[in-house]
Each structure stands twice: as structure tokens, then as C-alpha cells.
Amino acid sequence: MNKLSKICAMLIVLILLMSAAFGVVTKNSYKEFEEDAALVDKLIIENSESWIKHIEGKKVQKQLKKVGYIFLVTATSSERVFRGTKTILNVERVIKGDINYSEKTIALYESAFTNYSKVTEVFLFRSMNNLSIGMQPGRRYLVFADKVEYAQEYKETLPYDEFIVDWDYYMYYFPIDSQIKPIEPKDNLTYGDIKNFDYICFNEKDADKLERIKNSVLDEYLNEE
Questions:
Q1: Which of 5, 128, 198, 207 has CB 3.0 to 4.6 Å from 182, enough for a Cys bridge?
Q2: What is the pLDDT of residues 43-62, one digit of tens each?
Q3: What is the structure's pLDDT at 125?
């Protein structure tokens, strides 16, 4: 075997070893996420309280009026995607937008995900404005979103039309059949501890404020005929 062949062989072995290592790391990363080991750090708690402090019903309503679609939906499933969650929704009613989506299925990308911190060596939960946790399968919501426009060739490969909401929005989903409640604060809070709640808030005052905003939005859009 000449020198060039030896170098090529060594490179192939190195690439295979690196690929195997990457596979192990990736598999373990997903395993950590799926086992709800993602820590919610103190920064998220502080930011959540800061956001709620500045949220007002009028500000929320002003943002929501810019959105192109409003749906009454039931969330059926969700899956992890890069820096987000893809939630599948069955549309019960179209309140704003193309009426043809009524009784159809759509996909909504939510900015709720875990991010590995090299500093603390844990998975940290991140979400829109450090406030939204994401919609839960089996529950009904009023949802505000914009349609993602793709090239026709790519669109034809998708099982459902896809929607997204701008990162800067305070709130974009509003639970129909449940009251917003605070999360009990504790050290080393995990994603598993918060995933069944509606929003990241840690006291009755903040939860009551979000509940009032939610009810005002539901009253305006669900009672319109």
C-alpha cells in the first residue's frame, strides 16, 4: 500500500469514528429531551416575570389584529424540530383567513425547545418571550398564526399546510377549556414539571393577569358571529 493509499485509509477510519461519535451524542441528546431532563434555569424565570409585568391586554390585542389567520383548534400531536416544536392541529372553525381550512388539519411551528448549555452542561428550556410553553395534545385552543408560503414543488411534498407565529408576539394561543394557573416554583425545575401548564408564570397575580387577557381575547373572537 503506497503512502497516499495509507493516508486515504486513515481518513476513512477517522470519518467513521467521528460519525459514530456524533451519532451517540445526538442519540443521547434526544434521549435527554424526551426524558424531560431539560432544566428551566433562573434566567427564564426572571425573564418570564419581566415579560408579564409589561404585558397589557391592549398590547396583546393590537398584536393579534396583525395576524392573518385565527383558528379554533384541537391539538392532536407534537414533535421536536430544530429550535422548535411542530404541533399538529385539527381546525374546528376558521375565524379569520381562508374558510377552506375549516375541518382540515394544519401544522404550526411553535418556538418552544430545549437548548444545550455548554456552560452549565444541562438542557435548558427556551420559548417565545420565555412565556409560552406550547400547546398540549388533546386540548382545544384559539390560535393566531400566519401561513408559511413555500415554493409549489416543496408544498406538494407536505402532508399539511404549515403556519408560524412571529417570535415577538406576547401570546398566540389561548386555552378554551382550562384556567391559566401558576407553576409552583422550586429549585431544578424540569420541563416535565411545567409541560402541562399553559404559560410560564410563578404566582397567582401573574396567572390572574394572563387569565384576564385570555378571557378578553376569547370574548372578542369567539363571540363574534
A1: 207
A2: 676 777 777 888 899 999 99
A3: 80
Whole-structure pTM value: 0.78
DSSP string computed for 75-89: EEEEEEETTEEEEEE
Q: Which CATH architecture does the domain made up of 36-222 adopt?
A: Beta Barrel (2.40)
Half-sphere exposure of 178 (CA within 13 A, CB side): 17
> What grid cell was written down for 55?
404585558
d(C-alpha 47, C-alpha 30), whole Å: 26
Find, among 109, 159, 116, the residue nearest to 134 by Cα: 109
Would you kindly state where each structural domain of the chain is located, as residue ranges?
Answer: 1-35, 36-222
Backbone angles phi, psi at 70, to 5 degrees: -130, 125
Beta carbons of 70 and 94 less than 8 angstroms apart: yes
**CA dist., res. 132 & res. 165, Å (int):** 12
Confidence of residue 33 (pLDDT cuts 50, 70, 90): very low
